[in-house]
Structure formats: structure tokens, C-alpha cells
Amino acid sequence: MTTGLEATNFDVARMQSGDEGGNGPGRGTAVITRTKTKTKRPSLYRVLILNDDYTPMEFVVHVLERFFQKDREAATRIMLHVHNHGVGECGIYTFEVAETKVSQVMDFARQNQHPLQCVMEKK
Ligand code: TYC
Fold it and tell me: Which pLDDT value is given to residue 27?
């Protein structure tokens, strides 16, 4: 499938200055270097919250609104999914963003003395 968002790679083959000089490979020879600009899409990570028996449902809903930009309805749906199934997805982010979300949630839960756990996993 093409989305129009694919990265473009450029290959540049050129002779280095001095390649025709007296040293190195010698007269009449040239070294061709290839400079490849390779763009790679970043790896993505799921941020998950885990169920426990003590964290209040309303606190989890608030976490999802505050750190994951969910509206009340989406936050409640995710919270209930975690309550019923043990684990659920809050969002998908690049490594540094995911790491920051996990830290923010863990710090906020700890400050409020709730055992809520938040983890990330590579997709
Ligand atoms: N199981 C908790 C309760 O009954 C609610 C809860 C939901 C806790 C989701 C954590 O990630 C969680 N109060």
C-alpha cells in the first residue's frame, strides 16, 4: 500500500578529490564512495496500565484524561477494560514519549499513594 508518506532514499556516488593523485589506489584508479541517506521510521511502544484491587476507578479515569488526552467516555471505557481484563492500552508513542508517560503516571500514582502500575512494551 502506498500512503504518500514513505521515506525517500538518496544514493550519491562520487569520486573523492585526490583519487586521481599519485598515492592511494594509484594512477588511473578511483575510489567511489556511496553516501546513503537512510530514513527509518521510529520504533513504536504501547503504554499499558495494569489492574489492581485498590486504585479507585475515578483515579484511573483521571490519569487517562490527564496524561493520555482521553475524553471522559474513552477514559471510562479503557479503565473498565483494564478492570475486567487485567491490562489495557493507553496509547502508542515513540520511545522517549512512552518513557515520559510511564514516569508521569507512576509518579502521580505514588504521590497519591495508589499502587497503579504503568508499563511500556515494544509493538
Ligand atoms: N480494579 C480497581 C477497582 O476495582 C479499578 C482499577 C481499574 C484499578 C484499572 C487499576 O488500571 C486500573 N477499584
Answer: 58
Q: How far is CA 7 from CA 36, 37, 41, 92, in A?
A: 13, 10, 8, 21
Can you tell me the distance from the alpha carbon of 20 to that of 18, in angstroms, rounded to the nearest whole number? 5
Task: Count CB-CB contacts under 10 A for residue 79.
Answer: 23
Binding pocket residue ranges, ligand 1, CB within 6 Å: 49-53, 55-57, 60, 79, 82-83, 116
Which pLDDT band, with edges at 50, 70 and 90, does 114 fall under? very high
What's the pTM? Answer: 0.78
Cα(2)–Cα(38) distance, rounded to whole angstroms? 18
- Closest ligand 1 atom, CA of 54? 13
